[in-house]
Amino acid sequence: MLHRRQIRIISVVILILAAACSFISPKTTGTPTIPAVTNTPGTPTPTEPPMALRVNGEGVWLAEYQASLQQFQQAQTSAGTTYTDSEARQMVIDDLVNQVLLEQGAIAAGYQPDPVAVQNRMDALAAQMGGQDAFQTWLQNNFYTTDSFNQSLALGMAVEWEKQQIMSQVPTSAEQVHARQILAYSSDNANAAYTRLQSGTIFDDLAFQYDPVTGGDLGWFPRGYLTQKAIEDAAFSLQPGQYSGVIQTELGFQIIEVIERDPAYPLSPDALRTLQKVALANWLVQQKANSTIEVLVP
Domains of the chain by range and CATH? Predict the structure, then answer.
């Protein structure tokens, strides 16, 4: 059973890289357990430590939130990036909420960490950092004790397990189109190109005039992959050999032609990773919509 107490989580990837310049993603979960006390006259009643937020009744201690915020700000200073205090607070809160939700999902699915695997990871990290002395220095610099970091790893493994469960549900093939584009940087040039297409110019020939290297080939892509949704929507509305009108996007003015379509074309590694990230983001959105989240800090 996972320890239900306030502890920080560092993402597995950042841990492996020793996290010198990246944001160390901390996380704490679990409402702290207050020991039962039989009150006698003059005996004070224990009070709950101050909380920064609660997710479905599970609290994140204020002290842990503050340490997480300090870690984030320290990491951003090292990386040379700057956020306002408000932005930093919101990013840390969002990260903490996401981590709690993922841990809760893992627990609901029956996940339990392997203490041996946790210790092995601790030992491997210490070895990568140059030994126990260097590891202990790193822990102190990042606001950890050996015990809290050990438990942090255990919960971190639960979070990573739940992420993998979500992302593994994304199929490795999907409906996709193979398309090419004509990209112009002014509406006049784009409209001129469209007029030439309407007059019978072959799309492929014209595309190579605008892009001599690739001929505007966009390759195969599924829904949810392109950064320009208008281009994606246009492409999936066309059949092979058809082309769109002029579409204005952040990139310029584009005309799309569909070359091929396939209802179950294998996803490229990059497309699969993108759709897995989308699936994870959608899962978190749904969980938040069905959860009770109380933010107790300004």
Answer: 12-169+277-295 (1.10.4030.10), 173-266 (3.10.50.40)
Q: With CA atoms as reference, report the closest residue to 96 among 127, 60, 126, 121.
A: 60
Distance CA 119, CA 8 (A): 16
Q: Which amino acid is at 143?
A: F
> Comparing C-alpha atoms, which of 162, 135, 130 is closest to residue 149?
135
Find the angle CA(225)-CA(21)-CA(144) to the nearest 5 degrees.
Answer: 110
What is the token pair recorded at 257? Answer: 């032609």
Rounded Cα distance between 15 and 156, Å, is 10
Asked if 61 contacts 32 with a C-beta cutoff of 8 angstroms, the reply is yes
Strand duo 253-266 + 173-184: pairing? antiparallel
pLDDT digits (tens, 9 = 90+) for 228-284: 999 999 999 999 999 999 999 999 999 999 999 999 999 999 999 999 999 999 999
The tens digit of pLDDT for each residue in 235-248 reads 999 999 999 999 99
Q: Which two tokens stand for residue 104?
A: 């809760």
Closest residue by Cα to residue 55 from 124, 107, 20: 107
pLDDT: which is higher, 6 or 224: 224
Token pair in block for residue 278 = 């989308």
d(Cα 4, Cα 59) in Å, to the nearest integer? 10
Cα 187 from Cα 230, distance rounded (Å)? 16
What does residue 181 show for φ and ψ, rounded to 5 degrees?
A: -135, 160
How are strands ordered across the β-sheet holding 293-295?
A: 58-61, 51-55, 293-295
DSSP at 124 = H
Q: Give the span between the Cα atoms of 212 and 285, in whole angstroms.
A: 42
Per-residue burial over 155-164, b = 16 or more CB atoms within 10 Å of its CB, e = otherwise: bbbbbbbbbe
Helices (H) and strands (E) in the chain, counts: 10, 7
